[in-house]
Amino acid sequence: MAEQSHLVEPQIENQFGYSSVCMMRRKMCWLLTVVLVAHLGVPLTGAWRAAQPRLQFTHSELIQNGRLLTLPLEAGDLHSLLPDEDRRRLYVGMKDNLLSTSLDDITQNPRKLFWPASPDRVQECLMAGKDSELECANFLRVLHPFNQTHLYVCGTGAFNPRCAFIATSIFHQAEYQTLSYGQTECGKGKCPYDPFQKTASAVVDGELYAGITSDFMSRDSAFFRSLGSRHVIRTEQYDSTWLQDAQFVRVAPLSETDNPEDDKVYMFFTERAQEAEGAAGKVLYSRVARVCKNDIGGQRSLVNKWSTFQKARMVCSVPGPDGLQTHFDQLRK
Ligand SMILES: *[C@@H]1O[C@H](CO)[C@@H](O)[C@H](O)[C@H]1NC(C)=O
């Protein structure tokens, strides 16, 4: 059986376009340009009409309206953006750098915190045959406001994930700063090893809920809760009835009633659906999973595992007697 599935694997990967996605990324130019539309103040002219919702906004319209601001960045891999509306800042998680810039004009006064992977880990990563530009660096993949004064940020650290609380005040101090390894903590269970893995996370009441692959080989896709005072809990490891090859899209807290004991956290993802697989091979489904925020894991069984984890396939259907069921099997961010 095991041999059979190995034979099937390469064809299927092509079928779902995994390899072509990777190829595209490899070809990506690393000089990225951050573009931000300053949307407040002066109304836009031209095609803009308030009565009609805008579904598209073209690059040339931006230029015409003089609303295009660019900030050329050498560090590339623009992955997470975090706007702070109150303080009018925009944080950008990049490769080896956390950028802080003005939300109103990104060209004004950008500040950089240089946060490289440790040189030992970079060496080990290279020895393992990984790519120096695209893998063996610190790709910031988790970026959240933690409290009034701090962000919580994690990076892949050249396949050795690390996290840090970062005081937003440090960006006032100097234009360029460096975060040393000693100022970071272990990021296992919080951030993927591999920067190509799709990840989703949220900080809810001082705890980090993270859908990640939490091992070097990216085989262990899991949903974790960590940080804060409660012990870490997660989904069962390598159990396809919990999660299998999940690609995480979004984590969202939801209060269903006035009672905080009823609060839930939802996670949206795409995963391999073994129950639906037949001769044709691998099948992907979009799903939503739910856990209770007050879950502390089981007592005798499911120790340090979610005891409230449930998941369902996402089905979007057209109502009515001959309504169609449309399945969006690949959720994207
Ligand atoms: C925010 O969290 C950090 C890290 O735990 C802590 O050092 C800091 O005192 C907190 N700030 C506030 C305002 O609670």
Key words describing this protein structure:
membrane; four-stranded antiparallel β-sheet; mainly beta; Methylamine Dehydrogenase, Chain H; five-stranded mixed β-sheet; 21 strands; binds 2-acetamido-2-deoxy-beta-D-glucopyranose; chemorepellent activity; Sema domain-containing protein; 333 residues; single chain; neuropilin binding
Task: Explain this structure.
- The protein is mainly β and 333 residues long.
- The chain has a single domain (77-327), classed as Methylamine Dehydrogenase, Chain H (7 Propeller).
- It contains 5 helices and 21 strands.
- It has helices at 2-15, 18-27, 59-64, 119-127, 170-173; strands at residues 32-37, 68-73, 80-84, 89-93, 97-102, 111-114, 140-145, 150-155, 162-167, 176-178, 185-186, 200-204, 207-213, 221-226, 233-234, 247-254, 264-272, 284-292, 310-313, 316-317, 325-326.
- The strands form 6 sheets. The chain has a 5-stranded mixed β-sheet. A 4-stranded antiparallel β-sheet has the order 7-8-9-11, with no helix packed on it.
- It is globular, with a radius of gyration of 22 Å.
- The protein starts with a helix and ends in a 7-residue tail after the last strand.
- Residues 1-47 have low confidence and may be disordered.
- It binds 2-acetamido-2-deoxy-beta-D-glucopyranose (NAG).
- The chain crosses the membrane at residues 28-48.
- Residues 54-333 form the Sema domain.
- This is Sema domain-containing protein.
- GO terms for molecular function: chemorepellent activity; neuropilin binding; semaphorin receptor binding.
- It comes from Crenichthys baileyi (White River springfish).
